[in-house]
Specification:
Number of helices: 3
Number of domains: 2
CATH superfamily of the largest domain: K homology (KH) domain
Structural class: alpha/beta
Helix content: 25-40%
Distance between the termini: 48 Å
Number of strands: 7
CATH architecture of the largest domain: 2-Layer Sandwich
Shape: elongated
Order of helices and strands: EEEHEEHHEE
Strand content: 25-35%
C-alpha cells in the first residue's frame, strides 16, 4: 500500500473575527470567517475550500477520463455551488452542485456525446473528494455536453 501525505501549516494569531494564514504547497492564503457567517471575509474560508477541493477533484478526474477514452475536447469549464444550511445557529454543509460544460471537437459523433455524458457522471463518483464526503454532503451534477461547430 502506498500513501501520499499532504502537509498544511496554519496560523491563527487572533480571536474569532481575526485573520489567519494557511500554507499547503502552492496554496498560500489568508483565511477568515466569511461575511455570510458574520466574519470579516478576508482571504478564503473552509466553505470555499471544500467547494474548491470537490470542484478541482471532479474536473481533473473528468479530464483524465476524457483523455483515456480518446474523446477530444474543445473546452471544459465548470461552475460549482456550495449550499450551507443554517438552522438554529448550526451550520451544515448540505449540498454541492457541479455544472460542467464540455464542448467536444467538431466532428464528434452522437456516440461520443453519449460517452462524454456517461463519463461526466462517472467522474463524480470516482473523484477522491466526492468519495470522502459521500454520505455527509449531497453532490448534484448538472452536466452539459455540446459539439463545436466548424
Amino acid at each position: 500500500m502506498a500513501e501520499h501525505i499532504f502537509h498544511l501549516k496554519a496560523n491563527w494569531p487572533g480571536l474569532r473575527n481575526d485573520v489567519g494564514e494557511i500554507e499547503a504547497g502552492n496554496l498560500v492564503t489568508k483565511i477568515s470567517i466569511p461575511p455570510e457567517m458574520d466574519g470579516p471575509g478576508i482571504g478564503t474560508n473552509p466553505d470555499e475550500m471544500l467547494l474548491g477541493a470537490a470542484a478541482t477533484c471532479y474536473i481533473i478526474t473528468l479530464a483524465a477520463m476524457l483523455e483515456r477514452s480518446s474523446l477530444m475536447k474543445e473546452s471544459l469549464t465548470m461552475e460549482s455551488e456550495g449550499i450551507v444550511d443554517v438552522t438554529k445557529g448550526v451550520f451544515t454543509y448540505k449540498k454541492i452542485i457541479h455544472r460542467p460544460y464540455l464542448v467536444l471537437k467538431s466532428g464528434a459523433t452522437k456516440k461520443d456525446v453519449e460517452m462524454a455524458v456517461r463519463l461526466a457522471k462517472k467522474a463524480e463518483t470516482s473523484c477522491m473528494i466526492s468519495r470522502a464526503i459521500q454520505g455527509n454532503v449531497e453532490i448534484e451534477l448538472q452536466a452539459a455536453v455540446d459539439v463545436a461547430v466548424e
